[in-house]
Amino acid sequence: MWHVLHIIDITLWVIILGSVAYVAFFAIISLFYEKEDRIAIHAAALSNKMNKFLILYPAYNEDRVIINAVERFLGQKYPKDHYTVAVISDHMLPETNDYLRTLPITLLTPTFDKSSKAKAMQYAINEVKGDFDNVVILDADNVVRPEFLSQLNVLCYIYDAIQCHRCAKNANNDVAVLDGTSEEINNTIFRKAHNRLGLSSALIGSGMCFSYNLFKENVFKLSTAGEDREMEALLLHQEVFIKYAPDIHVFDEKVSNQENFQKQRMRWMTAQIQSLLSNLPKIPDAIIHGKINFVDKTIQQALIPRSILIVLLTGISIFITLTIPEWCEKWWALFGVLAVSLFIAIPRQLRLRSFSKVLAIPGLVLRMLKNILHLDRKNTDFIHTQHG
Known about the structure:
Blueprint: H1 2-29, H2 38-46, E1 53-60, H3 66-73, E2 83-90, H4 94-100, E3 106-108, H5 117-127, E4 134-137, E5 143-144, H6 148-156, E6 161-168, H7 174-196, E7 208-211, H8 212-219, H9 227-237, E8 242-252, H10 258-279, H11 283-288, H12 292-301, H13 306-323, H14 329-345, H15 348-355, H16 361-373
Parallel strand pairs: 1-2, 1-4, 2-3, 6-8
Antiparallel strand pairs: 4-7, 5-8, 6-7
């Protein structure tokens, strides 16, 4: 009996070790100096080329936030004739659409039987005509600084795919603080650290910029609610490098209540499973052709979600300490490695505030665990997260 329990203990520890080791490795890598092609960036900055941008705002039932986001964006310090803002208004109120029509933008009002962000972007590419160099994807609540396009214009001279630094624009309660902190940890591990190792950044879903032709070629291949993971997998399989731009900020509204948190994580977890199952059959070909970024992306999809990892390790460590104390050392060691790694990954200015909210984590994780009971890997329905 003890032998069987010991095997289960070791097996579970090894499974969890994989996720902790991945986080720890890239947290350490994030501390190293980034080697960047400064000459190329300087040459791009001196270039007189002004790219033409198509800005897409897929907006499903986003009456509360879309007007503010668009009006703020129209304050760009960039030639007005070099960017077009297109709002894809899906299930928004007539009065919202009426106001948007008064702004110097393109308003699209499709009627979808089943709404999705992918369908909205596909519709916009078909409808908005123009000679564009790049496409920018923003969520309806995203706010950017006036120099946003000018900064992007420099990087677009070098890169075909760029992920901007999405960060929190609100921290009004414990849920919002933890959601914002989680985003910054992702920025450190899956974006900054990956670029520092010469690997592609992960995409987030907004604050993304692509070469127009590259985007047009791939957007019609998207079919699930996890369109950012689909797009990322397509680009990595094509060996397109994704650049993370930590100095180009996109301010994003963080969820402020547990119900919205649960909806958001349900969408993410479903997309993670769909992406993993979609990528796995392509792994042999990726290995043969040395597509390391695609292999790395597939590994990411197999990781245990970080919030669940924290509570799982804490619970197991305490349980083993109370029941079989001679087996507990390796569990506390693993917990310690995870804690130090997350501490490194959180920006300094957020550390104190983030760790003061840890008591809210168990409740949020319980909601995530409830999601597991309702996950359907074949489900492609769009799960909308309501903004405040």
